[in-house]
User: Which sequence fits this backbone?
């Protein structure tokens, strides 16, 4: 599947950044996996996970209740 978007000519964002923003948002929303995100961007899964923080997305989606339970069991 593919799609085409017309962007303003003066947009200074790179293709890579646009793909990362798109894929990281889909990942954050739980729509795609990290592997699928990496495929969209054209990088390894490891690189995708390492870059997520630079785009404001946590690499691991842990619910607060799960985290509190893990702390209590530690």
Assistant:
């Amino acid at each position: 599947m593919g799609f085409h978007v017309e962007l303003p000519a003066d947009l200074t964002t790179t293709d890579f950044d646009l793909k990362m923003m798109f894929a990281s948002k889909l990942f954050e929303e739980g729509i795609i996996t990290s592997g699928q995100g990496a495929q969209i961007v054209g990088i390894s899964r490891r690189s995708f996970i390492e870059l997520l923080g630079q785009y404001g997305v946590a690499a691991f989606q842990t619910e607060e209740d799960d985290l509190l339970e893990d702390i209590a069991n530690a």
Residues 19 and 73 are 39 Å apart (CA to CA). The radius of gyration is 15 Å.
